[in-house]
């Protein structure tokens, strides 16, 4: 009976428990939350030769009304099921369900979620389907550029007729690797790549295995065969195989010059372990030069140079490498690292820790990174260097101890170049934790901004206080806070995430105690009971099958890039895409860039809704290698890449060039020297870049002992002699009078040519060995060093910091916060090295750091200097934290450096070594913008604290002083704004973000568009309409010349001129002007009168004057920058017919001198000369001006020069005479190479020819000539005619030469016959031109004008003479002919 009672009690308790649960209303909701796409539930087998599938599902369990816990998942299915917990917050749990070895056919499982006695179930249906062998088809697409990189891939195989994604094909090949990629459009792509360079020309035997079937097929080798002769030139750098240490990442280099200059053959270096590809870098007269790096070769190892010869490989050179000692030393500190922990007690009881060590191993230029549990910070040299020299020094840094868990944390110091770390150091826990909670994520958004930029919005749980959010271990703190104060209540954080190649990856919400919640964006993102919002669909690009690209074309093709870059447009689309807003990144890679791992500037393809195609604007650099110009289309930076080599030839951009240069500038010669008074060391280097030309660069020199650094910038403005193709530059470092004996070393070089190719050298960073500017000096490892010997003086103590003050100011204009510092430093022994400025650092929690270089405020005396420094405080930096200050980089003349960590500053300035209570002040800020072209359109603006109702004000630099355009953003978040209405412009423009009430305005930000100029690089000759030749009759009649269609008048000797009505006058050589290069040519002639029907035997003296007026510098908008008048010339007679004049002008900007040399040559007889590759006929009695201008220091590379010349002709009589003026293009040749000016008085003319070519830096270039009469003070009347010609000279480096000439003509017709003539008569001095007179006559309407003139003639007949009556009659007849 007792046993029955116990059983009754148990039943009663169980019933009460069930009843309580029912009364509480608890229940479980379980739901399948897998990716709802079709392919989640329908799959092929896990391997193509198997008949079972694997599936992954995600289910969510949620408990309602009560306390939850850990759910358990169960199933009664006979299938193999594994459950993995992904997320649990006691209320909600996410489980990943792995279903393995599912047989083919329709299947289902029932999953039950259990929590105590409560449970709920859901059913998932899915299908495992075998391959249908009857529907599968195979097609091979070769890589048409495979010969350029045999180790890349030979092509790809398309398997079509598939129903689902199929990345699990079992494939075998003969020596080729296989990459399988499948898309949502039921096609699978097999990328084939040779495992070894030596099998590049073998056909690929390929097999794909299925359950009961095997596909066997052979893929022919796709490599193109181009023969190479066996007499290639092989050179080693250095010329001996022995190699001494030059830098830590240098290596020997081999060059091979292939004498074939088209699409070059394959050349590689062969060793026992395989082949190493060499790359074509540039082309010279002997052929194309290949380079290869001799890395990781052992002692006495044989190396062979192997070249492609037809379809075979031929050994063309071999050698035994005696020794290739590639340096692997790591010059890092040794000894014990000690830790000091001290409580500040000033703000939230936060703690800092100090790490220090001493080292007697030489420090060699490497910055250190600091990390605590995957949170990393890099603060550059001299951070941490407290005292000593680079040979023996003390290192000490201090950081705030925050975000520490209750367990020990690992602190690591690592040389920031991937080399060996210092021993990790365990930090004790921070026992003062602000919050012991484990924060989670409440909300997640990912918004696409453009093809390479995403906006991430995260709302952490409310217990996320003083924490950080990490994305792929990069920490983000309060600087990313956009909503809330981060302390009380909800908050939102925003991040603009750029240039990601692998997606967002792992996101971690880490609290102040160190506890964290990780999230993996590659998994379903159901992080709470409310799924996060996805504005950006991660599958947006899946609508494009990247292998189904079509309609690829280019605005221009078959381009000749010899010495010129060409702007172009590419068009393409994908199958079934008719409209889209998605942008695609397109990277254009020429052959060398692709192989060498360097990438040219990225561009973005945008949808053109008019033509229904994507289009992308880009620039083809000058002098690229002949062949196909590669491009790579990226479907979002985290998605598939597609290389143009896999497209047919019809989809390729083909370029040619007679010159090939993708190699940066190098040092051809180097001379080292030391000078005194002042003490200077100098490398005099000759920079060589013979095709593209040197553009700019820099060199960094470091003192090997004291670490002092000097940056020397180089450009074409620093050329001592020569030009951009081969020019001398000086690298100079000034040494103080009191100094320490030490070497100064070049530790970094970057040199760029005018197409953007570079050569670099770094002492401790990796770089491309062939692209080393020192390549000609590999045999001299000391070429980058100069040792200066002082008076055996070395200061053994560091400089001393006497005072240090810090403060914070907030701008009333834009809310910006600035840290201000003032400090005094002294060194009583040797004095301070005044050209080495200390650096002030500020650090906060999570190893955050900012810094800036100080400047000299006052030099107190020879040993003491007052410094000042300011650091702009980023938004959120130091909020809810302290800021620690430190100062390093105090260097004295005796070779000793010093620095002060935060701990050491405490003893000098107890109130200024840190700062607390930093407020969170919002500042409206534009920090950067996206790339925009001169076509205008969309602009992405990135910054801080935008609001949805803010506008963007735009000011185009076209003379406006205001912002005329106000744009409404189409997308607006706190950190990013997009506008779509930027106008097309080739000029920079200014933007600012403004609130509706105009009270809140951002900084003004200047945007520089990428300017494209789409000009057909090979325009077809235009079909010119039939234009009558000049003259009445044409060309002076059949005896004077004839008219050549679309060319002009061809004159018979002795006739010349545009209408063959002028003859050259043979005159005596004019007298020489020894003061200036002006020429006066007197001519005695008879007056022709105002018409040709009346003779005038009066003798008239005509004077022609030619002179050089001035030189002007103009900006790109033709505004005058500088004007130089020619005041004093130095005269020199070359021979009886040639005189030379020289003058100098001083450029005020640089106080440099430019020399102008004018050579005047008189031609007594007809001669043929050559100038600028053109043959020119010099008429007898003509004078030629050859003007040579030396190097000029332009204010800008966009500027040009304008040389002004004056020409005039005048007559000794002023009545009954006419003058006229003509300016145009000569018809001397089809090229229209000359402008002409013709100044005529009566029947005598001064004729000037201005060649439209100049010799610019030894190269022939086209120039232009313009008439300046409208802006000059002319003296023009009936008896004289004057003009001013501006010869437009482009930017140049070394010199420019021009060559105008002048002669005197006698015309068969008077100037009165020209429409623009100005005439006078005996009684009237009105000076009305013929055109004006005719206009007056025509204004009297028809024949009535004749009557009026006749009446006027009758009234005044007693007051006029016969000559005037004849003039009126002729004018009347002329008017009738025009009717």
From TrEMBL:
Record protein name field: EGF-like domain-containing protein
Keyword annotations of the record: Membrane, Signal, Transmembrane, Transmembrane helix
Residues in EGF-like domain copies: 1049-1060
Annotated PROSITE patterns: EGF_2
Source superkingdom: Eukaryota
Residue ranges of the region described as Disordered: 1071-1090
InterPro entries with a match to the protein in the record: ComC_SSD, DUF7034, DUF7035, DUF7949, EGF
Sequence intervals crossing the membrane: 1333-1355
Signal peptide stretch: 1-25
Keyword 4Fe-4S found: no
Pfam families: ComC_SSD (PF22933), DUF7034 (PF23033), DUF7035 (PF23034), DUF7949 (PF25820)
